[in-house]
Amino acid sequence: ELRQLIEAAAAQETPDARLRAQIDLARGMALHGVGSLDASAAALRAAIDVFRNGEARGELAASYAELAAVEAARGDWRSGYTQLALAKQVSERLLRNQIDQRFATLRVEFDMASKDAENALLLRDIRANERALEQGRAVLARLTQEERKKLVGSLKVMHGRKLKREAEALSQRRHNLVV
Length: 179
Prior knowledge:
Distance between the termini: 116 Å
Helix content: over 70%
Shape: rod-shaped
């Protein structure tokens, strides 16, 4: 009676190839459970054909592993071993892809955290510069016109003295090079 239900489910048409392959995988497992090994192997091979063309690596590995068990139950140890090796290969590829995706995710998270920290430092610097600018504006606003002229004059004198010292130092170096 269980076989009849399984066969009836298989007879129904499904438009989606992946859904049909998932049904074939489930049917192959069920048929293996009731001892119908040839029908189970056929259903599993049909599922494998669809999964191999798609991106369903987890289901492909499960199909290969189940087919390996069916082949072993049929007494075909060589085919069972081949199917098990294929299941292992697909599982390893799936694991590598998952690791690569996790690494990429962590890398993006790290980059975002670095950018956030950099932005926080830049905002802190901007705020400090704005405060310093406001303080400078406040000091300038308090200075009288005459004090501003004195300040500018002092700055010119200081700049002139600096230029004079630099010129004397340059002259001394030329003198030392000549001697």
